[in-house]
Amino acid sequence: MKIPFIDIHTHNGQNSEETFAVQSLFLQDIGKTGVVNFPFSAAIHPWHVDKYNLVEINQMLEKIIADKNLLAIGETGLDKGCTSNYERQKEVFNLHIELAHAIHKPLIIHAVKSWNELVPIIAQIRVPIILHGYSQGLNLTRQLIDLGCYFSAGKLALNPSASFVEALTIIPLKSLLFETDDSMIPIEKIYDQVAGLLNVSVELLKNQVYENYFTIFPESRELELK
Length: 226
Ligand SMILES: [Zn+2]
Hints:
Layout: E1 5-10, E2 19-26, E3 40-43, H1 54-64, E4 70-79, H2 86-103, E5 107-112, H3 115-124, E6 129-131, H4 138-146, E7 150-153, H5 162-170, E8 176-178, H6 187-198, H7 202-216
Parallel strand pairs: 1-2, 2-3, 3-4, 4-5, 5-6, 6-7, 7-8
Helix pairs in contact: 4-5
The chain binds zinc ion.
């Protein structure tokens, strides 16, 4: 069997012979039926929380929770770098966390300048947590490793800060994932770069991430590549 490159968080990636991609959808963009025919995650992004009230968000979430292609709730989280009301971001994040707990799905978390508040929240979460676009330094990374988080490296790994390179070396391989997010960079390139930084082979990372995927999503069977 051929092991694919897993792209755990993408807004425009495609499944191909080589790649298994989890599409990240903005909840409000999902059609009226709520049916999606590819693996996906969905949530109201912190950037969009001011546009919908909690009743509307709940109604949108209810349409997708039974979809067998829904793998995770996200991206959701806290972003102090955007103009959205921060209190509203917390409310919506909380709503998503409660849903993830209720339906036992992992959370894909978006964090910008909000780690101080996020760490205690993360400590209370009881489903797998994927930190998308991760590029933080050693101290925070240590805390997040202790909390059992998964770390998804993306385009920032191509031009990493010295502190992120240091942090990468302490992240257990069993907690590592990769993503393209909103970039057009091929996922292979990110695996290749991190393999170089860690001085391991791309093959080893591919196999490890494949295993990590099934630890996070144990109900998934063999990945269907199209
Ligand atoms: Zn994203």
